[in-house]
Amino acid sequence: MGRETSSAGQPCPGERRRSLPDRRSLLEFLRTEAGGGIVLLAAALAAVAWANGPWGEAYHRLWHHRLVVGPARWRLAGSLQHWVNDLLMALFFFVVGLEIKRELVTGELQDPRTAALPVLAAAGGMIVPAVVYTLVAGGGAAGRGWGIPMATDIAFAVGVLALLGRRVPRGLKLFVLTLAIADDIGAIVVIAVFYATAVHGAWLLAAVAVLALVPAARRAGVSRPAAYLPLAVAAWYCTYRSGVHPTIAGVALGLLTPAATVNGRDVLRRLERRLHPWSSYLVLPVFALANAGVALDVHALRAAAGSRVTWAVAIGLVVGKLLGIAGATAAVVRGRVGRPPPGVQGRHIIGAGALGGIGFTVSLFITGLAFHSEALQADAKIGILAGSLIAALTGAAVLARPAAGQRG
């Protein structure tokens, strides 16, 4: 948090105020996400082409290849896809935790009045799609997928905005990014609370104890990030054994990273700058390559067209997100709880609501947690691909239209 300064730039004794939002870090984040979105799209297309091409069987053999890690007593086993989703994605969620921490302390989320609009819009954009999904899918095994259309993919949404360039105001980009970050917070809560397997209390307490050592080590003067790596591994392992998805350990470690300087070093900013490109340009593309390879032959498409899960996901993303985000925004503005950024008009909010339906990465992630059936997973993935594509095209079409005063 910043301190109140006098006209000479010196701190005023006894007075504190919120610091101005760290826009430089936010713009760096936007640029990395935009570039990462292009690589992510290429990886997703490659996965679909690979799975449906002449080497389709090799694709499935590779990602279902079983790997065993660790000595006998501590051994962990799973497919290569499992290791990507449980271990490699922990780095992605750690970066998400870092970004949430920065936004809460020095960014757009530090001021409740500024954060009210995107946060409440994100809430509407999570609740309405979940309700829409439940109404379409009904109960039973299919009903477990209600969390799938709740997510917004930051990289793809920001990528579309980057392609539109100056056709969209800068304030809308910040609004969408803040909304997506708030959306990530909600998705993390949903994953931790609703998609945990049978929870083992002893392992969960062990994970909490390990995480408690992080601030203790910081207070003891440990400042080198590498020194915390053993604690990070231990926290991941204990969380994995507890039944809570181990990527939650990554989020927790990100939130525990100090926002203030430690021994003259801005640890949070340095970690984010170093790890965010790895997350965007390596982790997410590998995740897409491992998870987006769904069969799109006639049989698969016919099965998906008759599946409640496919329709529930697609309608939840396209219709639920748009209604939830735009409706919540209208209610917040009308109630004077918050106001849109300068230059952001009604059609911009509608376009942003449509882009919120691009739910690729976290939606695929939740699909693997919600369904054990490969058939249901395939139906959900087709719904995600179709819904995200329609949402992207709809949002781009709305935002690309010139304002009424610019037509001529």
What does this structure look like?
This protein has 408 residues and is mostly helical. It has one domain (21-195, 245-402): Na+/H+ antiporter like fold (Up-down Bundle). Helix content is 68%, strand content 4%. The strands form two sheets. The chain has a two-stranded antiparallel ribbon. The chain has a two-stranded antiparallel sheet with strand order 3-4. Mean pLDDT is 86; it is low at 1-17.
Brief sketch in words of this structure:
The protein is mainly alpha-helical and 408 residues long.
What attributes does this structure have?
globular, disordered N terminus, Na+/H+ antiporter like fold, 15 helices, 4 strands, two-stranded antiparallel sheet, mainly alpha, 408 residues
Task: Please tell me how large the radius of gyration is.
Answer: 22 Å
Termini distance?
48 Å
Count of distinct strands: 4
Per CATH, which architecture? Up-down Bundle
Strand order of the largest sheet: 1-2
Give the integer mean of the pLDDT values. Answer: 86
Order of helices and strands: EEHHEEHHHHHHHHHHHHH
Provide the CATH top-level class. Answer: Mainly Alpha
**Which structural class fits the helix and strand makeup?**
mainly alpha
Strand content: under 5%
Residue ranges: pLDDT <50 for 5 or more in a row?
Answer: 1-17
Q: Rough shape?
A: globular
Which fold name fills CATH's third level, the topology? Na+/H+ antiporter like fold
The CATH superfamily is identified as: Na+/H+ antiporter like domain
